[in-house]
Amino acid sequence: MKEAIDCKPGQIIQKDGALYIVRSWYPHKIGDRGGIVVDMKIENLDTGNISMIQPRSQDKFDDVVLERKQVQYSYQDGDMYVFIDKNTFDQIEIVEKLIGANLHLLKENMELDIFFHEGRAVSVVFPTFVEMEISYTENVVRGDTSGKVMKKAQLENSGYEIDVPAFCNIGDKIKIDTRTREYVERVK
To answer: For residues 94, 96, 102 and 103, what is the CA-based torsion angle, rounded to 10 degrees?
Structure first.
């Protein structure tokens, strides 16, 4: 059994026989003598419905046994994304929805982890940082030194835009945090 205080974003929990993925998690104390409660936003993996729950910190969820497979992204086929299991070389097809917000950071030959529950894929986990190349960005006006000057930049193969510092140019490789989808640093 897993307590609510230990359920972090991205983890799979089981509640009332259904599987949920924790999307957000915020513990806080209620009142002077009250206990700790956890505001959790959870998504049902079968229906896609998102709900808010507020369990006490010591409330327990059933354990979920997951199988982890290390995979490499191969190609897209319609709304399915095909990955190769690094151990067995089997092809694994994953729906776009399961990849989630990091879909724009997916590129050929990227290594990821996919978690399965009873043979069904339930979660795709990206590495914490990925390196991408800037395919397009505007030049900035010289002389603006009022603070941290940021500009929009499009990433390779997806056209996804993020904010980067003014010194980044087309062709530069940058490191991106997949948890926040924000610029971290320029890669040399």
So the answer is: 100
